[in-house]
Amino acid sequence: MGRRMSAEPTQTVPRHRDVVIIGAGISGIGAAHYVAGELPGKSYTILEARDSPGGTWDLFRYPGVRSDSDLFTFGYGFRPWREDVSIAKADRIMSYLRETVEEEGTAKRIEYGRRVVAASWSSRTALWTLRVQGTHGDEAETLTCSWIFSATGYYRYDQGYAPAFEGRDRFRGPVVHPQHWPQDLDHAGKRVVVIGSGATAVTVVPAMAATAGHVTQLQRTPSYVLAQSARDPFAIAARKLLGDGRGHALARRKNILVQRWVWKFCQRFPTVARRFIRRATAKQLPNGYPVDVHFNPPYDPWDQRLCLAPDGDYFAAIRSGRASIVTDRVRTFTETGIELESGRALEADIIVTATGLNVLPLGGIRLDLDGEPVDFAEHVVYRGMMLDGVPNFAFAIGYTNASWTLKVGLLCEYLVRLLKYMEANSWAVCAPVLPADAGSTRPFLDFGAGYIQRSIQDLPRQGQESPWLMSKDYHDDVRLLRRAPVQDGNLAFRREPEGAPSGRRTA
């Protein structure tokens, strides 16, 4: 499983690694591939707070949990997805990640039960000092590193978002958030109300409806939902014809183009896209179904992420009568269910609050530079992965309008190019410098999802032009991160100071 801390006295001389990757989810495992493969002379370790790899896919255990992107693009470019089903459930994704960890040799580099709580940069030593706590009562430890790559994502693992519903304590049955699903919850034959309209609700509703007495989805605001085949015939044929490696690469390129085209079409022709989605939705539902009541969002397509229904399972549950939708607002919980603002009552044995996530930048890690705390909201993002004025620090944030991992892979490619450039030129320190004439800034993510909007004031900012702009286009990012020169005039470098710890190269 990897190294755990022993309960020995705290070290007087901290361990040192060239690169510390924080998080062993899909981003951190991918980052390890690039660091190990492209920088064989660099020492690295992965610190993971949980007891197993997988991150999100190890955390979420709610019924039906699956990807909402195809695994040819959500998976790694360097490791083929060999399943015929491309919209995959969590157990298959976890198998894919575990196999990657074992076959890449990453397993021996992961230290489980290790939560990074703070990181302090010293300009005198040109090093980060990380404060690490054991999650099983182990004694705290410090270690140093030259670079940090944060692969923690942007939401809080230990707490999902749940509005303060009036009367919640009055309800006699269980109230469950999908982020903390009890494995012993029995919903067979029960009346279930699922509050929410996002991807989680669209997943939970058909999964629970298969055995529940009835599932009612209660939504305040509708979402766009598209049925899509869970299998990709093109990808299956490509793999049979070309083999797993080349077939995967071809399917990946095709799906990148499709994702990009759909997003650009929706952005350029939102009214046409809305009509198309409405027609596709109506075809999935019974004649006379009130589509404009339950599937008519007040925003344009891709202002928020589209929800996918693999093989139309969500619509099938509605057609069968096992599930239904109510568009209304909660007035109060009662002993036996929910009373709505319209006056209607929903009877329930179980209530599921699929109400979203809480954003937590960098997993709640506290950063400081020479003793001065880093306020993320005061910094601007460079190339979508670094913060102006913060040295030797990078982080992974994927796409919100396409598969997350597409962006993360490009960020990792740029990181190893940057580290190679620094080594070739004997640089020890690198930090982006925001130009004096950069102009105004805007929110980090131009995304209307509630979990982003609730925390937008705590996130970094983005500029108006590249490389200070958060790109949403894969092809633009290929040019910026894979092909553009490492030094574009926005990076400041310096050599290691004379007072560097002995045993480390001084330029």
Automatic annotation (TrEMBL):
Pfam families: FMO-like (PF00743), NAD_binding_8 (PF13450). Keywords: FAD, Flavoprotein, Monooxygenase, NADP, Oxidoreductase. The keyword Transmembrane does not apply. It comes from the Bacteria. SUPFAM superfamilies: FAD/NAD(P)-binding domain. One of its GO terms (molecular function) is N,N-dimethylaniline monooxygenase activity. Its cofactor is FAD. This is Flavin-binding monooxygenase.
